Amino acid sequence: MRVDESVRVLVTGGTGLLGYWVAEAFTSKGFTVYATYNEKNPPRSNASWIKLNLEEPENIVGVVRETKPDIIIHTAAYTDVDGCEVNKEKAYRVNYLGTEALARAGRNVDYFIYISTDYVFNGEKGLYKEKDTPAPVNYYGLSKLLGEVAVRALLPERGVVVRVSGLYGYSPTGKKNFGIIALEKLLRGETVEAFVDQRLSPTYIRFLGEILVKLVDARPAGILHLAGERLSRYEFAKLLAGIVGVDENLVKPKLLESVKLPAKRPRDSSLDTARAWRLGLSLPPVLDCLKDMVSVYRRFVEGW
Question: Cα–Cα distances in Å, from 72 out to 36, 91, 136, 196, 245?
Answer without folding.
Answer: 11, 21, 26, 37, 40
